[in-house]
Design goal:
35% of the residues lie in helices and 26% in strands. By secondary structure, the protein is of the alpha/beta class. It has a single domain, classed as Vaccinia Virus protein VP39 (Rossmann fold), CATH 3.40.50. The strands form two sheets. Strands 3-2-1-4-5-9-8 form a seven-stranded mixed beta sheet, with helices on both faces. It has a two-stranded antiparallel sheet with strand order 6-7. β6 and β7 form a beta hairpin. The longest helix has 20 residues. Bound molecules: S-adenosylmethionine. One of its GO terms (molecular function) is methyltransferase activity. Pfam families: Methyltransf_25. It comes from Streptomyces hoynatensis. This is Class I SAM-dependent methyltransferase.
Length: 221
Amino acid sequence: MTEPSTPARRSAHDAAHLRTTADAYDAIATVYAELPRDDLATFPLDRAVLAAFAELTRGAGPVAELGCGPGPVTAHLRDLGLDVFGVDLSPVMIRLAREAYPDLRFTVGSMDALDLAGGELVGIVSWYSVIHAPPKELPTYFAEFRRVLAPGGHLLLAFFESEGGPVTEFDHKVTAAYRWPIDELAALAGEAGFAEIGRMLREPCEGERFRRGHLLMRRGA
Ligand SMILES: C[S@@+](CC[C@H](N)C(=O)[O-])C[C@H]1O[C@@H](n2cnc3c(N)ncnc32)[C@H](O)[C@@H]1O
């Protein structure tokens, strides 16, 4: 069955940038999925934040990786003992994720209009996926994260940090993407009802261009 790349809860006014992102990732999905997927093996600090998130959410209920691409982070979270599924805008990414990890559930959808009931999740991971949200749209994304998370649920964001500069669009290889000052991203999530638990900044390693930001947050009551 072919799935639509725009979920039913999509509102007409914001469909254009989502369509562009979905088409761009559909076009490169096969190449992207064939890239070496050893990122997490190489980066102990990245694994550490995922391990902390897992410790906070394990056994408490379902967790979603939003913007899961071909699924390696979803699989890593499963290996950490979480009841996790993946959601992505790109139907081709979802097909590849299902082929690579047939034991896991992956669905097509947009993280700003999820086909989930209010309070259904205990955790959300967005691993380099909110980077593609136009900055003015990000409050809508965080409002949706708050809607689907139960009170006390956890949110983990990974993104490219702007290293002292303002929110900046950069030349991402696939489609429009933005680097964020970590304080500004934390404040925006705070306005949506998330309290910061902690943060991790990692300097770029060989072959990387930008500082990596990680924010671990908890949904308020
Ligand atoms: C840089 S990739 C990261 C993939 C995966 N998290 C990983 O680290 O391997 C960003 C992914 O986010 C997805 N994405 C972007 N905007 C999205 C949205 N609004 N809803 C769901 N997925 C989205 C893209 O289709 C793409 O697969």
